[in-house]
Specification:
By secondary structure, the protein is of the alpha+beta class. 69% of the residues lie in helices and 12% in strands. Helix 4 runs antiparallel to helix 7 (302-323), helix 4 runs antiparallel to helix 9 and helix 7 runs antiparallel to helix 8.
Length: 485
């Protein structure tokens, strides 16, 4: 009873306090509604972002973070070296070249093993139907029961096996050169996509700046029209320019998204687009002299090494084909048991003595090819044709190297020499737009001059960005012939 009364009194006190709170809240309701209405427009974008963030978190809940994503959901920041490392892991063409190299290495191991003696241990039991004698029914067998348990050392020597081993060594060298070709080609692909995204981001920023400048100029022309200083046609021209810059901004956004998707395909196994790239185009690399580049190409060109290794492989194939026309030697050494009882010793009923079954034997075979209906000579002709084709390809690779080396170096040299001029043009275009705008405000320039200055500045900035990317791509293309210098 005491507990129930205390509960009722505490409940009445809480109700009275709650009523006071409600009255205070009612008095503040009007102010709260007005304050909330004033913040709706400002809070809508952030609320949408929060909602999108919650969706992304809830959709990925319960899953382990991928290696391609950061643990806290922040964008992955990548340099060019990071991008190259990821591309080597995810590129099917580069992995196919590595697989080919691995297969060539295993072929060399197997061919080398064929030149060395092999050891096997043979176990065999032969049962022959009896005929009342000790030899059994079949004369080819040594007894009714025959047990064979012998170790065999086998060695085969021929010109074909030696030439085949040398051929696999040359094939491994060619596969290694082709894997390096694939690696350098992948570098060019990644450099194009990586700096393509960097330039697309720069062009988007340039388009944003141009749209802002066009909007400012539109406001200036409107104010001047209101003051009676310019005609309405200037406002129309400024409006057209502003709309064009808005369309260019949308196109720049589309190009940036496209470049991001192309790079994400190369770098991420799960097609992650939440990443950022480091813009390092402000410090262009130096270009060595042509004699240095030519010397590096002579030493480090993988295409030339692949052609030389292919020719050597074809030569060894000719030698292997000649091996089919020459004698070959096979030697075998046996040690173990070949007896009627599976035992080291047994009693011989004929001699009434205990004999030792454990022993050894050796055989040597000289095989001389005599007639094969022209098959061996046909193989020799085939190998000779492949050797001739390899020589032609080597000669072409040498000529192509000289041609590409000169062409790629000229491209890199031209791109490097134009960077300073392009940067200076961008600075002059920015100054020209500033001065032209001031002259227009003073009534000394026409609206067409301002619009032309705006377009010139945007083109100059984009040309400078394209020039920087062009030099990096040209440098990477040149290094496919010379390696890193």
């Amino acid at each position: 009873m005491f507990i129930s009364r205390a509960f009722r009194s505490s409940r009445s006190q809480s109700l009275s306090q709650r009523g006071k709170v409600l009255r205070v809240l009612k008095s503040l309701a009007g102010l709260g509604v007005l304050w909330a209405a004033s913040l709706v427009a400002a809070q809508t974008p952030s609320a949408q972002q929060s909602f999108n963030l919650q969706l992304s978190v809830s959709s990925s809940s319960g899953q382990k973070p991928s290696a391609d994503k950061s643990a806290n959901g922040a964008p992955v920041t990548m340099t060019l070296q990071d991008a190259l490392k990821r591309a080597r892991t995810n590129s099917p063409q580069f992995q196919a070249a590595l697989t080919e190299l691995g297969l060539a290495q295993q072929d060399r191991v197997q061919s080398r093993a064929a030149l060395l003696p092999s050891v096997n241990y043979n176990n065999e039991f032969i049962y022959t139907q009896g005929n009342g004698t000790a030899s059994g029914r079949f004369i080819a067998n040594n007894g009714i029961h025959e047990y064979i348990s012998q170790a065999n050392v086998h060695e085969a020597l021929s010109l074909a096996s030696v030439a085949d081993y040398r051929r696999t060594v040359a094939a491994e060298a060619a596969a290694r050169a082709r894997s390096e070709i694939a690696a350098r080609g992948l570098v060019v692909t990644v450099v194009k996509s990586y700096y393509g995204l960097v330039i697309a981001q720069r062009k988007y920023a340039t388009a944003q700046r141009a749209a802002s400048e066009a909007e400012q100029f539109l406001n200036i022309s409107k104010k001047l029209e209101q003051g009676g200083e310019v005609a309405h046609s200037d406002v129309i021209k400024a409006q057209i320019q502003f709309q064009q810059q808005q369309r260019d901004l949308q196109e720049a956004q589309l190009a940036m998204d496209r470049s991001r998707v192309e790079l994400a395909v190369l770098l991420f196994s799960d097609f992650n687009q939440n990443f950022t790239v480091v813009d390092d185009l402000q410090t262009p690399e130096s270009l060595p002299s042509f004699p240095e580049v030519q010397a590096a190409a002579t030493r480090k060109n993988p295409e030339l090494r692949a052609a030389v290794a292919t020719l050597q492989e074809a030569k060894e194939a000719v030698a292997a084909a000649w091996g089919g026309l020459l004698p070959s030697v096979t030697a075998d050494y046996f040690y173990g048991i070949d007896a009627n009882r599976f035992a080291v010793h047994q009693f011989d009923p004929v001699t009434q003595q205990t004999v030792r079954n454990l022993g050894y034997s050796a055989t040597a075979t000289l095989q001389i090819p005599v007639w094969s209906w022209g098959a061996n000579r046909s193989k020799l002709r085939q190998a000779d044709l492949r050797r001739h084709q390899a020589r032609v390809e080597l000669s072409f690779a040498q000529r192509e190297l000289l041609s590409n080396l000169q062409s790629f170096y000229n491209e890199a040299q031209a791109a490097r020499s134009e960077l300073e001029s392009l940067g200076r043009s961008a600075e002059l275009a920015a100054e020209s737009l500033r001065l032209t705008t001031l002259r227009y405000q003073a009534g000394e320039a026409s609206v067409l001059e301002v619009v032309d200055a705006q377009n010139t500045l945007r083109q100059a900035r984009n040309a400078y960005d394209d020039g920087q990317a062009r030099f990096r791509v040209a440098l990477a293309t040149l290094q496919t012939l010379t390696g890193i210098f």
